[in-house]
Specification:
alpha/beta, Aspartate Aminotransferase, domain 1, Aspartate Aminotransferase, domain 2, 3-stranded antiparallel β-sheet, 16 helices, globular, binds pyridoxal-5'-phosphate, PyrdxlP-dep_Trfase_small, NHTrfase_class1_PyrdxlP-BS
Length: 399
């Protein structure tokens, strides 16, 4: 049975602790933790009267704005190549359902890819990420893993990449992305490039999309949840390479969500057109996230832990093997509920929550037991978490 997603379940557990007056430092949920930009809120409010169902693929102004968004990132796009959905998560599920074959995932990778594959009756072929990186399979291991999977009777057909990555926070470099794309093409794989953290790349312009290398084989997904901090609005878009696949995706969408919420689409069209207030908000948010991630990265390295270098987004994925050894030599092991000592990252995450009131996610949530722990670096760690403190921080940041 598929249980509730680890990220959502841990978030709910932490909210329940907080509701009972237990203070928890919440580093477990993939949310930007920024307020809504007033201009974006105004765009939504102005569209409240749009109460009709709309076209399944999205309203024309949103599809045109999303095409412009991709154009500006070096991916020439026609509005007809865009399909919008209620978040990129359901879009990813629908894409996995219309693309044939089993799913190849980097280990570790975002919680929902493997769960969605399993909901669709697809097998997962796990391929470790390159040492010290994330979001893509190690090119040296990918080809042999595909051959071995076929020998076991699997049919690898879809490769999912995350650029920049969740959970590692790393951004795969151009030569690695190129090498992975070449192998994907050689083996006839379609690539889903999840670029939801693209605008939070710590060096703007540092993301090389597979759509630039193997355009006919790549679907790109993104959404409003991260750089513009609108996760609860539920709006994602994808850019498809050809009309037949687009038609199949629209077919699935039409039977599941009909259309994304119309007023949110109007506001999303405003966001994706990237007028100056949106650009300023995204740049300020990036400045904050980069500052908090870098400060935490230095602390992690100073503590002697290994950690992929952060390249974008708001995550770190340290390997706390040393801390695990220390903890299991103290009374902490009891707090972790494991009399024999801490067994892995899952025990350590439990210990951090129960004893130290710090919520993080273990690598097992990302297919990667027993190594890493994922920390979402909330900007509130440095700047406070009232809306007023967040605005003060956003206004003072030097992007
Ligand atoms: N992809 C990745 C890598 C994510 O981290 C998330 C959210 O945490 C999503 C997709 C889903 O985003 P949404 O459905 O809010 O667009």
């Amino acid at each position: 049975m598929l249980t509730q997603s680890a990220t959502l379940a841990t978030n709910e557990r932490i909210q329940a602790l907080r509701a009972n007056g237990v203070p928890v430092t919440h580093l477990a949920f993939g949310e930007a933790g920024l307020p809504v930009a007033p201009e974006i809120a105004a765009a939504l409010a102005a569209a409240a009267g749009r109460n009709s169902y709309g076209p399944t693929a999205g309203i024309p102004e949103l599809r045109a704005a999303a095409a412009g968004y991709f154009d500006r990132r070096g991916l020439p796009t026609a509005p007809g190549q865009i399909v919008a959905g209620p978040g990129s998560k359901p879009l990813l599920h629908a894409l996995l359902s219309v693309l044939p074959g089993d799913v190849v995932l980097p280990r570790p990778s975002w919680v929902s890819y493997a769960a969605q594959a399993s909901l669709l009756g697809k097998e997962v072929v796990w391929v470790p990420v390159p040492e010290g990186s994330g979001g893509v399979p190690d090119p040296a291991l990918l080809g042999p893993a595909l051959v071995a999977a076929r020998a076991r009777g699997l049919r690898p057909g879809i490769l999912v990449l995350t650029l920049p990555d969740n959970p590692t926070g790393a951004l795969a470099g151009a030569s690695t992305v190129r090498a992975v794309c070449e192998i994907a093409a050689e083996h006839g794989l379609m690539v889903i490039s999840d670029e939801i953290y693209r605008d939070l790349a710590h060096e703007p312009g540092s993301v090389l999309s597979p759509a630039e290398i193997i355009p006919e084989r790549t679907v790109v997904t993104t959404g409003l949840s991260k750089a513009t901090a609108l996760g609860g609005w539920r709006l994602g878009v994808c850019r498809l390479p050809e009309a037949e696949l687009t038609a199949r995706l629209i077919g699935v969408a039409s039977e599941i969500w009909s259309n994304p919420t119309t007023p949110v689409q109007v506001a999303a069209a405003y966001v994706l057109a990237e007028p100056e207030p949106v650009r300023a908000f995204v740049a300020a948010g990036l400045g904050l996230h980069r500052a908090v991630v870098r400060a935490a990265y230095e602390t992690v390295l100073a503590a002697g832990a290994g950690c992929p270098a952060p390249g974008g987004g708001f995550y770190l994925y340290p390997d706390l093997e040393a801390a695990r050894g220390n903890a299991s030599s103290r009374a902490d092991r009891d707090a972790a509920g494991s009399g024999a000592g801490l067994g892995g990252a899952a025990d350590l995450a439990e210990l951090l929550l129960e004893r130290y009131r710090i919520g993080v996610l273990p690598g097992s949530a990302f297919g990667d037991d027993p190594r890493g722990l994922r920390f979402r670096l909330a900007t509130s760690l440095l700047y406070g978490d009232t809306d007023e403190q967040r605005w003060t921080a956003l206004r003072s940041t030097d992007p």
